[in-house]
Hints:
- By secondary structure, this protein is an alpha+beta fold.
- A hairpin with a 4-residue loop joins strand 14 (206-215) and strand 15 (220-228).
- The chain has helices at residues 4-11, 18-23, 148-151, 169-175, 181-192, 309-318, 336-353; strands spanning 27-32, 42-47, 50-56, 62-66, 80-82, 85-87, 94-95, 101-103, 121-122, 124-127, 130-134, 146-147, 155-162, 206-215, 220-228, 239-242, 246-251, 254-264, 267-277, 292-295, 370-371.
- The two termini are 33 Å apart.
- The structure holds FE2/S2 (inorganic) cluster (FES) and fe (ii) ion.
- Fe (ii) ion is lined by residues 181-182, 186, 309, 313.
- The site of fe (ii) ion (FE2) has 5 residues, from helix 5 and helix 6.
Amino acid sequence: MLSQEENEWLARVGPGTPAGQLLRRYWHVVGAASELSNEKPKKRVKVLGEDLVLFRDRRGTYGLVGEHCSHRGASLYYGFVEEDGIRCAYHGWKYDLCGKCLEQPFESPETGFKAKISHPAYPVAKLSGLLFAYMGPPEKKPLLPKWDVLVRQDGVKKVDICEVLRCNWLQAMENSVDPTHTYYLHSHTLKLKGNPDHVPFHYQQLSKIEFELVVEPTWAGIQKQRVFAGDDVPVEAPHPLIFPNILFVPVRMGYAMHFRTPIDDFNTQVLQFRFAPTKDGSVAPQPEDVPVEFVGTKNAGGEFHLDNFASQDHMAWETQGPIADRAREHLGESDRGIIMFRKLLRDQIHAVQTGDDPIGINRDPAKDEVIRLIPKGYTAYSHAAEA
Ligand code: FES
Ligand SMILES: [Fe+2]
């Protein structure tokens, strides 16, 4: 249980909020490259409470700028994407990828007015078809982590963009250290729906759950593992919640990384990157911009259809409320992962507030190695944790 004050302190993400300041110290997925094309080189996005426009200029470089023009606030989403920037459709002010104002067509150049304009802009990096943005202080910018399933070529990649989650990001993250939820929410639900494939892996009694804080030079998080009761039962591969807002999980076809990017305090964009390794380790030919699929979680009537894991999870998270009321909860022994995550989050917010780096960021190129998330001795396919 938390006080209302502490609940808000941990959950809210806007500029200047404690958790928002922490989250701004990490790279976040803001879209997939295949969402942008020459025909439609821009997308309106809201990230950490800020209205932004993601675009690809005519040279193929990605930018993320404040949506509202620094002149008089018209939306740059309706702007013209040009060779080296984006031009507002209202009076033609043009900005480059760094937010520098390049042109003000109806101002006298000798006034030097455009040099005084600094439009909000954030760096964007593309990795394996995902577009990551960094919205923190420029001098604190970490290197973009090289997650192994993103950089590997020996597998088929796919991106599932989930229907917007209408609640705060922290509910999704607490679920990633809540390993008991899979029994009823996923397997039991599917079984009662008559689904012959109700993922029996999750329909087993647990004997214990292990949690371990992992702090590496390039990432940090909480590694967890379910140990099932009985002899001769499958052993689940340990897999981490990657601090602050990613889940890495073995799935039937291989592995998935679930990125939960806060849109604002009450909405979250979940994007699932899926990697199915080839059995013989051969390179899998595929387009540079990983294909994207939209995953709906609700039916036409606006209710959760509960037909897949995403819909089941979103039901549980959204129905906790726009921001879960943690002053009214009753945590038990099985919730100790949640308590551990909240402590970690609290500690890292304090670290940023006192001028330290939070855990799991790296600015040293010498340490910038591929981050192997699959523990040695475990393989895909045999430890499926999700359909
Ligand atoms: S509002 Fe954008 S140029 Fe005037
Ligand atoms: Fe789940």
